[in-house]
Recover the amino acids of this structure.
């Protein structure tokens, strides 16, 4: 049986270089590839383009890469929790491409499926559609969106096996699965790595064919982005 395991995060990110385009899974701070991000910070790669639903917070997630000014361009949907992101964007230090959330997910899924482009009504008549081909279908206008192109996709799963099969948990299923196989190399870090053939096939969300490298992650913080509580009724 084919095994996709690598020894550690250093081996997992091998080949990442300055100027590359990287996909990074997760939703908010949920399900982000913490180990891979930390290693990218340590390596000091620069001028990278990051495709991610959001930009993390100032001291966690992609915010760590932004602190070191390693990111040249962010392609995101929601970026409202990061002061450093705001500062770099307003000062012109950071290129930003805002994309509707569903469109961002579909541009990843299209790349995963080998579909070069698709039409969507989202963004028609707004700045999102500027410079893009538009077309009418059944009396409604649509914008053509190209699939993303990236050298690496970094995802985080709850459980995986040595063959690269992945199971996600909760909100981590939002963007991680559609990024698997959407880049030239997909790297998965997992909370629990098990021998090949031990996962229930009916529970697998992403088959190993979409994963190139998998490793056992460590020391996950799993931060809460915004903690909202209410007082207990007396």
């Amino acid at each position: 049986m084919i095994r996709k395991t690598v020894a550690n995060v250093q081996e997992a990110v091998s080949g990442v270089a300055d100027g590359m385009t990287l996909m990074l899974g997760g939703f908010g701070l949920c399900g982000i590839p913490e180990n891979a991000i930390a290693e990218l910070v340590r390596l000091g790669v620069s001028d990278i383009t990051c495709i991610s639903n959001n930009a993390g917070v100032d001291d966690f997630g992609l915010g760590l890469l932004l602190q070191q000014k390693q990111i040249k361009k962010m392609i995101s949907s929601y970026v409202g929790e990061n002061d450093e992101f705001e500062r770099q964007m307003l000062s012109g230090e950071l290129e930003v491409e805002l994309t509707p959330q569903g469109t961002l997910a579909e541009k990843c899924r299209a790349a995963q499926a080998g579909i070069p482009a698709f039409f969507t009504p989202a963004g028609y008549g707004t700045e999102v559609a500027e410079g893009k081909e538009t077309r009418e279908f059944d009396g409604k206008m649509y914008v053509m969106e190209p699939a993303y192109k990236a050298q690496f996709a970094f995802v985080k799963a709850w459980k995986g096996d040595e063959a690269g099969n992945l199971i996600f948990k909760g909100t981590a299923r939002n963007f991680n699965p559609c990024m698997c196989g959407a880049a030239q190399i997909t790297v998965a870090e997992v909370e629990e790595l098990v021998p090949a053939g031990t996962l229930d096939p009916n529970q697998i969300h992403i088959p190993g064919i979409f994963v190139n490298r998998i490793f056992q992650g460590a020391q996950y913080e799993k931060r809460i982005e915004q903690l909202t509580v209410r007082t207990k009724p007396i």
Notes: The chain has a mean pLDDT of 94. Helices lie at 9-12, 34-43, 63-67, 83-91, 101-113, 176-179. The domain at 9-115+147-216 is CATH 3.40.1080.10 (Glutaconate Coenzyme A-transferase).
